[in-house]
Amino acid sequence: MTLQEIKKIVKTYQANIVLLIGVILISLLSFAMRYIVARSYYGPPLELETFEIIENKEL
Description:
Layout: H1 3-12, H2 14-40
């Protein structure tokens, strides 16, 4: 395959190539952000408290 043929193929599918590269970059960025957030969060587990509601019948 010659350089001229490669240039012709790239020109023909330029929009699809750009779209594919964009999708790959966005996917990698979202994976990296989630990985960083998951590694940096080592907080204590949540503790849930329950409360009793006492009705005041005098009112």
